[in-house]
From TrEMBL:
The lineage of its organism: Eukaryota, Fungi, Fungi incertae sedis, Chytridiomycota, Chytridiomycota incertae sedis. This is Peptidase A1 domain-containing protein. It comes from Batrachochytrium dendrobatidis (strain JAM81 / FGSC 10211) (Frog chytrid fungus). Belongs to the peptidase A1 family. GO terms for molecular function: aspartic-type endopeptidase activity. Residues 66-337 form the Peptidase A1 domain.
Length: 384
């Protein structure tokens, strides 16, 4: 069954912000440094005129030298825009004055997908399905084919609220440095069934995985209301609804005993298509409670795994908040390695294994072996 990494859809594969009021995080003079933080600028030239205050950017084909009108349908919404090319520069990187395909999208509301009040448009980055316009070449393809980046890869490190400053996108996966006992590269790879949308093939129905995990959380009694009147059965029912709806939970309303929350292990087929001969070739990632219970901001947290149809589930950003993820577009595969906070990793940090052994970290703390779930997802309870 496929689990789509939907957080990457907006963060990387589908779009990247045209205007990011950012500075290079490393202040490096090296032209080969393509590692960007959320504060790295993207400068465009020769594109649709940007607005001053109006939400209507007045898109028209004549606004660009080679523009063509286009309508994008995404998640039930339509976005009108113009496809063209633009000279793109990202200061502090080797991406300087490079002609790339651009998709300029008209603002329809402050909540448009990929657009917020501080941004004026989006450009296709690495996701062919949304870049299926004129031309069909994505920005990543143009960068790689033109020799601006050494590999058709993008690595991503997303960090939770209190470590956001360590987040980055590495275009071309350059300047890899040793990290937490590894050479800095991915320690395990999983093939994606398609290059149009990076996804992973797991061994259990997403609804069953999510339902089993929620029940284990409730059985642990790790999340309780601070309101004494809401304790016992009513308390559990309220917590269950919050978890099922992926609703934010305010810290001042709930107590969380993190050490009591269960872990969840997701078993993924490493090769595709899955055959009898390769069905035992798997990669397992064990997530701790601080992965699936995401620290939303300084006041809120929320359950971050959401079931969709029978063959899809969104794992959300926290799935990678402590893992570094690499998208290899040439070989249609996703790599996993240690990410944010691995230098001070505890027993709650994600572990990465294959069918034979633990790949990272090499030292493990013991856990209670009682397990619920079946056929590819393991919900492991903590010691009382």
């Amino acid at each position: 069954m496929l689990i789509t990494l939907e957080c990457i859809l907006l963060a990387l594969q589908a779009v990247a912000a045209v205007r990011l009021a950012l500075e290079s995080p490393f202040e490096s003079a090296s032209p080969s440094n393509n590692r960007l933080s959320k504060r790295s600028p993207v400068e465009l030239g020769g594109v649709v005129p940007l607005p001053s205050s109006s939400n209507d950017i007045g898109l028209a084909p004549e606004s660009t030298p080679s523009g063509e009108p286009v309508t994008i349908k995404y998640k039930g919404e339509e976005y009108n825009g113009v496809t063209s090319t633009a000279t793109v520069t990202i200061p502090g990187t080797s991406i300087t004055d490079i002609n790339l395909p651009v998709l300029a999208v008209e603002k329809q509301s402050a909540d448009s997908v990929g657009i917020n009040p501080n941004l004026d448009g989006i450009f296709g980055f690495a996701y062919p399905l949304l870049s299926n316009q004129h031309p069909q070449v994505t920005a990543m393809d143009a960068l790689y084919n033109g020799g601006a980046i050494p590999s058709n890869e993008v690595s991503l490190q997303l960090c939770q609220y209190d470590m956001l400053h360590e987040s980055f996108i590495n275009i071309g996966n350059t300047e890899i440095t040793p990290k937490c006992g590894t050479d800095g590269k991915s320690v395990a790879w999983v093939q994606s069934p398609t290059n149009n949308q990076f996804s992973i093939n797991i061994k259990i129905l997403p609804e069953k995985l999510v339902a089993t995990l929620i029940n284990a959380i409730l059985d642990s009694n790790a999340i309780t209301s601070k309101n004494i009147l809401l304790r016992r059965k009513l308390d559990k029912e309220k917590v269950k609804k919050k978890l099922q709806a992926n609703s934010p939970m305010f810290k001042y309303n709930y107590n969380i005993k993190w050490e009591k929350l269960p872990t969840v292990s997701i078993v993924m087929f490493a090769q595709t298509p899955v055959t009898y001969d390769n069905s035992n070739s798997v990669v397992t990632i064990k997530l701790g409670p601080r992965d699936y219970m995401w620290k939303y901001d300084s006041e809120k947290f929320r359950f971050s795994i959401k079931a969709g149809s029978n063959d899809k589930a969104a794992l959300d950003i926290p799935f990678m908040s402590q893992l570094a993820v690499t998208f290899d577009r040439t070989h249609k595969r996703i790599g996993f390695g240690p990410g944010c906070g691995c230098e001070t990793a505890t027993s709650e940090y994600p572990t990465i294994s294959n069918s034979d052994r633990v790949l990272w970290p090499l030292t493990q703390l013991t856990e209670q072996p009682s397990t619920s779930g079946s056929d590819g997802a393991f919900i492991r309870k903590r010691k009382p």
